[in-house]
Design brief:
single chain, five-stranded parallel sheet, 30% helix, Rossmann fold, OB fold (Dihydrolipoamide Acetyltransferase, E2P), globular
Amino acid sequence: MRTIIVDDERLAREELKSLLSNYSEIEVIGEYKNTIEAKEAIEKDSPDLVFMDIQMPGETGLELLEKMSNPPRTVFVTAYDEHAIKAFELNAFDYLMKPIDPERLSEVYRRLAEENKTPDAVQNSDVLRQGDKVLIKDGDKVWFINVNDIRYFESEGNYVKVKFENFRPLILRSLNSLEERMDEKLFFRANRKFLINLNHIVNIESWFNGGLQIELSCGTKIEISRRQTIKFKDRFSL
């Protein structure tokens, strides 16, 4: 996981970098002392993960996350606990208190690893292709639909929202596991939060920072991240 650290205190950055060195799958690719530098790095390098302080000179970490349309997974690291509710409202991945408890950091890492892991049941399942039927259950409601009727999947914490017709039921599944299950000729990972049905794209336009914005048949507009835009163009350009 390509990771950046954002904190105005050099010693805090060094301490966190030392703790993260215990996890081989986490690669710290940069460290920054304010949100201006962080925003530039996120747009340029598209990290998978950000560890970010909240209280910094100028703009706060919360303000940066709030104004980003497709932020990477963000773990806030702060000495103040009064911002926790706001952080989770902004879909922060987690919230660590300073000084960082190594056991608490291990818990965050386990959750990250679990999110990135494809369950055995999914690995052993057949890939769902155009024309296949899927069973979707949300509470007492059940649907049995054609997979092509799904416009998109949207990550919502530990759940995924499935958009089809006028419905958006929630299922307990990670977006990564669904991406593994779906035919890549039918679905494309637009960004960290969205997996879109290629057959429902009705419009594409250039967007900020070299990305693209697509419009689906249901009217929803979704930004394709800079990194995924490169993959999209490689796959579909003549």
